[in-house]
Amino acid sequence: MKGVGPYSIARARAPSVSVCTKWPGPSPSPRKGRPSDEPRNASPLGLDVVSLILVLWDIDHTLIENHGVNKEIYAYAFELLTGRRAEYPARTDGRTEPEIMRNMLRAHGIEPDSDHVVRMLEALEAATSSKAATLRQRGNELPGARDVLTALQAASEIVQSVLSGNIKPNAVTKLSAFQLDGFIDFEVGGFGSDDEVRANLVGVAQERASGKYGVRFDKTNTVLIGDTLRDVQAGRNGGAHVIAVASGSDSMEALRAEGADIVLSDLCDTQGVIRAVNSFHSKD
After folding, report:
1. Rg, the chain, Cα only
2. Given the DSSP bridges, would you call strands 222-226 and 53-57 parallel, antiparallel or unpaired?
3. Is residue 18 part of a domain?
4. Which of 161, 195, 204, 208 is 20–30 Å from 23 (CA)?
5. Domain endpoint, select from 122, 137, 152
6. Nearest Cα to 278, choosing from 56, 44, 27, 30?
7. 90: domain range?
8. How far apart are CA 76 and CA 72, in angstroms?
9. Same domain, yes or no, for 110 and 202?
10. Quick one: how many helices (H) and strands (E) in the chain?
């Protein structure tokens, strides 16, 4: 798949809607290569580098905003899967895509069977691909996202991937729409196509990253960044520190009450996000 390779060059693109007022100016261009290609005796984060840190990003409402395109994607996937138009909208709220589709089927009085399960991933991928241009036009990368991704990519000890309810092809499509895919190592992510239980995706990503980078990843060196209560629950139950960002529908108070280690209002303070990731290194 073109442009899917981890740590390819992300092309410069300005956010299509709002921008940060706290962190003005153009984003620097990301470097080439993977963390393993860089010397580990110097760190832009000010860490004594003894191992890698796995940063797992949620996608929707954390890195990008879809402005309702997701609901259209699931409605079309439902139509592809059943041959009928959706009457009831999908309920998302941090669920995995297979869970979203199962719930959508049941809301229409259809009990998911083996045929639905077999064709579900194909329908989801086809529906998302068909809406990629619409997502690019109506959606936007969230303010500060590119700057934070760039800063973390510049640190040789950081591995950036995703922990997303999206199935893997859709995760790639969504980030590619805003040319953020080049910051992410998709080979070591956890996706909705791996397990319907979001918390289990943390272990999936840790195992993949451990196998690729030769470092044991567990809670001491894994940080999940997301915007929903389910993201917080996934980190707490799956074995990761959690930085919650109140850029979605859940408030800072709710995210804090759910047990997030650190809660941010947005990603606009690049150095603040870096300090948050850095803080777990010193704790463990």
Report:
1. 18
2. parallel
3. no
4. 161
5. 137
6. 44
7. 69-137
8. 6
9. no
10. 10, 7
